[in-house]
Specification:
Blueprint: H1 3-35
Amino acid sequence: MNKVVRKILLVAFLLVLLVVQLKLNINIGAIEWWRL
C-alpha cells in the first residue's frame, strides 16, 4: 500500500475512534445527570 493511503486510513480510523469516544462520554454524562 502507498504511504499516503496508509496515512489517510490511519487518520480516518483515529477520527472514528474520537467520535465514538465523544458519543460514549456524552451518553455516560447523560446517565450520570439522570441519576442526580
